Structures are given as structure tokens and as C-alpha cells.
Amino acid sequence: MGPKILRKFVSHLPLIQPDRLAEIKIISQELEMGHLWVKGGKKGRQVNIDPGCLDASKVVLATTKDASHRIYLSSGIYGEATLMFRHGSFQPHDYTYPDYRWPESLSYFGTLRSIYLEQLKLG
User: DSSP letter at 30?
Assistant: First the structure.
């Protein structure tokens, strides 16, 4: 068994425009680089930040890796619709990362969607 991995999802206010996702991914990479571990000649991340955006129908993650199901955003960054809202809850795709499939994760994003929809009404 490997070390326990802590996965924490966070959201923030104010709402941002989705076209800033690539810019935010680049900033997150800079933050990750500031927290590398070095042992011998090897380096690794201590922190992994996966920025994304949520709207009423999907959760989109930003990534630097291209794949057939990802759309180029800008500056070497791609977007992946990793969850879709269908039949009253978020549903994973075949390619969705395991931790985004966890019932706790799906519940969190469902709650966040409800908050998002309320924010749109108030805005």
C-alpha cells in the first residue's frame, strides 16, 4: 500500500469566466513547482493542483496532456469535461479520474452546482 493521498476540492468567489481556465492552470503549475521534493537526482510534486470550472451541465478540468476527448484552450492547455450533469446528478465518463468518481466527490460537485445556480440568480 502506498501513502494515503489527501484529495481536497475547493471553490471560490467571485465567479470567474471559463475562458480564464488556461491562465489559472499555468499559475497552478508555477505553484506546484514551488513545492517540489528532491531526493538524489529525482524530483516530484508534493502538491498537485487540478484547476477546473463547473457550470450547470459539467465539470471541466484543465490539463497539459492532449487526448482525443480534450479540447485545446490556449497556451498548451486542454479542457476535459470530466463530469456531466444528467438525471439529477453528476455522472463520470469512461475516462474520468477515479477520485472524481468517488460518491463523496460526486456529492460535493452536486452541492456546488446548487450553490452556483443560486449565485446566478443573485447576480
Answer: H
As a whole number, mean pLDDT of residues 80-99 equals 96
- Domain assignment present for residue 92? The answer is yes
Number of domains forming the structure of the chain: 1
Tell me which residue range forms the domain holding 33: 18-122
Beta bridge partners of 37: 44
Provide the whole-model pTM. 0.87
Residue 5: the pLDDT is 64
12 located within any domain = no
CA distance 52 to 48: 13
